Amino acid sequence: MSSFFSEAAPSLIFQKQASNSRRIFPFSPIHSPRLGGLYAAGSAEWFHKDKINMRIAIGSDHAGLNLKRETAALLTSLGHEVVEFGTTQSDSVDYPDYAEKVAKAIQSGDCTMGLLVCGTGIGMSIAANKIKGIRAAAVSDCFTAQATREHNDSNVLCLGERTVGPGLAMRIVDTWLNAAFLGGRHQTRVDMISELEK
């Protein structure tokens, strides 16, 4: 795995843009009370900043709302376009609805990658993987985050707010986005998975 950069966090610019029922996150600059303030104050210097910007679909149920907001703010600060598919409130909702929205945004080509958050990440991954072409992985450590990109070509990352702390979650997201599919024998296996969908 490549080492994290040590450069200072860049100036943070946040976009507001409406698009049908979706919206671009308008969050304030990377503020997280659970991490003790602004990431830019010192804990974000290790994030990669040389990756090509992507359009990332993001969604959660009520149990993943806070962590989704924090990861969305991080992604936006790194220059990615974050397309939010809900939920935006803490009222109880059903996670398959949001897994489907994010998965179909990737399936259609509207978004490049996806991020889903629920209590454990497991329910979201099960639901998202029902959509053809989606390879969703529930991840709780950086090694698995890298491996699921390099070996499985995963296109949706699923996190659990109740199982992964916000600091580790930020590192997992960064690791996942900056790992690349290795192809070769792994492509053969991914093709075999695709055959199972027919």
Structural overview:
- The chain has 198 residues and is of the alpha/beta class.
- It has one domain: Sugar-phosphate isomerase, RpiB/LacA/LacB (Ribose 5-phosphate Isomerase B, Chain: A).
- It contains six helices and nine strands, in the order βββββαβαβαβαβαα.
- The chain has helices at 65-77, 95-107, 122-128, 142-150, 166-178, 185-196; strands at 18-19, 22-24, 31-32, 37-38, 55-60, 81-84, 113-118, 136-138, 156-160.
- The strands form two sheets. The chain has a seven-stranded mixed sheet, with helices on both faces. Strands 3-4 form a two-stranded antiparallel ribbon.
- Strand 3 (31-32) and strand 4 (37-38) form a beta hairpin.
- Helix 1 crosses helix 5 and helix 4 runs parallel beside helix 5 (166-178).
- The longest helix has 13 residues, at 65-77.
- It is globular, with a radius of gyration of 16 Å.
